[in-house]
Design brief:
Pfam families: DinB_2
CATH superfamily: dinb family like domain
Radius of gyration: 17 Å
CATH topology: Four Helix Bundle (Hemerythrin (Met), subunit A)
Structural class: mainly alpha
Helix content: 55-70%
Shape: elongated
Organism: Hymenobacter daecheongensis DSM 21074
Distance between the termini: 48 Å
Number of domains: 1
Number of helices: 6
Protein name: DinB superfamily protein
Largest sheet: 2 strands, antiparallel
Strand order of the largest sheet: 1-2
Domain DinB-like: 25-173
InterPro entries: DinB-like, DinB/YfiT-like
Number of strands: 2
CATH architecture: Up-down Bundle
Length: 186
């Protein structure tokens, strides 16, 4: 696929996530943001905190990789096998539950609306990284996988992994919000 088109599509997806969180979650009261549909599920803020924990790892890794000099950026990019598998596992369409690492699981965390502000700040960072990525080789393997750092994702794979993972959990948070609205109407 064309690298520029790939990055522009990711940019649009990140902007959509930013808009959803800004308009659907930010106006809610802290009490609603912390409501859990069931004891084992996550609240809206827990969904976003989970994403913040991943962003705290992946965004600095991406920034570091993009800061390193590289040759001219190829016009095309294709996912590696590891990248395709990683992205497929976190796509919102994949209904299979994924096991969350303990350090990435925000269940029972004490969270405030500052979690939303941090998420939105991460989105701004990600948009800047996507702009910066236009001048690099997206196929360069440079991003250690968070849970097994000996494995490395390419820059393009890591960018799409982060975005798809965010879409999955923002959609999860949206389902929580919709359930809250239904319960409040009853």
């Amino acid at each position: 696929m064309n690298s520029r088109a790939f990055l522009e599509a990711l940019h649009g997806r990140v902007q959509a996530l930013h808009t959803t969180v800004s308009t659907d979650f930010a106006p809610l009261e802290a009490a609603l943001l912390n409501v859990k549909p069931s004891p084992t599920s996550w609240s809206i803020l827990e969904c976003l905190e989970h994403l913040n924990r991943y962003a705290r790892y992946y965004l600095p890794q991406l920034a570091k990789a993009l800061a390193q000099p590289a040759g001219p950026a190829p016009t095309d990019f294709s996912h590696s096998w590891l990248g395709r598998k990683s992205i497929e596992a976190v796509r919102p369409e994949n209904q299979k539950k994924q096991k969350t690492l303990a350090r990435m699981n925000p269940n029972q965390s004490q969270l405030s609306p500052a979690t939303i502000a941090e998420f939105l700040a991460h989105q701004q960072q990600l948009l800047a990284l996507l702009a910066q990525a236009k001048t690099t080789d997206l196929s360069r393997k440079a991003i250690p996988v968070e849970f097994f750092r000996l494995l490395k994702l390419s820059i393009g794979d890591a960018l799409e992994f982060v975005v798809a993972h965010q879409e999955r959990h923002v959609l999860q948070a949206e389902r929580v919000r919709q359930q809250l609205h239904l319960e409040l109407r009853v």
